[in-house]
């Protein structure tokens, strides 16, 4: 078959870290490298994403890693890996403290191993050159508001009243602001936006007083990003009520905006590695998401920085095992991933007889298997193998990604937590990504 012949001719090995050389060549001087995953609960995706990131940091001087996790949770990890005074000496402690479901997406041994490496790498660098670890996501409304209040109480008490008003507005709805979104979708917006305006003015950009230390600058930036996270979360929860594309677009736009703030903070020569699900990383225009009115992180970053300065790396797997929950908030389970649909990207790669393979796509894809529409599997935090046919996204590979990593058989992630977290979180779309 012509498609299978094209696949086998373009396949490259991916057995050891040295095999990633063609990906580094493709990345070149690109400023933003987004690394995906076809599921949150698969060992191979996390392990190889970490391997590529280690090389980008060690060999190409990338400035920070940003993940689709919450800003306050990842801030604790950041402080550990950069050796901040008073921070956890072992990044495992910071990751083990993650509690919002699905905590296992970052509280796992694969992420611990990477963060321990990063802490060791940073130990040999001066503080201003240490590589950070940040969260881009939008779910930390109350945690971020609490962090803002702590900062303001110590440093800017004149703004504390605005923070208290914003926090007080959410108190009737407990730890789950979905109640706020359902009952009074406009009531708290004014308070959050007033707080954010004050924090933007106070925390500003990177410019700092001459006598301000790097630690104080970082603390100001943290307060501002917590305020931005609270405002983004408020918009996201409110958009959930309308359904459709509004909440998805609010979330991915917030992640893209947070990435821009991190790049600005780290300076004009900074470079970013992003870890997120394929549905966020792959350009939405290469899927049916675009036709449905959805934007995503990959599309926004490509649009803002250009295709030459953005490299999107997707992952795909055939069959094996995965960690996921049967419904939102349920205890995680070890689940079987069945062989893929016959009309899928994964079925094509399986038919080519490839155990593992790396594909670096040309700038102008001409091969039919890169331009034709096939579905690609997308397993989120929620997964039901009995409804496997629902977990696919129509995809044109050459438009969606610049690079694809393929594993015919996959194994489960190794979580730190063996029980469901006591803290829930908001549902995302049906795929739970």
Automatic annotation (TrEMBL):
One Pfam family, short name: Erythro_esteras
The protein, known as: Erythromycin esterase family protein
Organism listed in the record: Actinomadura keratinilytica
Phylogenetic lineage: Bacteria, Bacillati, Actinomycetota, Actinomycetes, Streptosporangiales
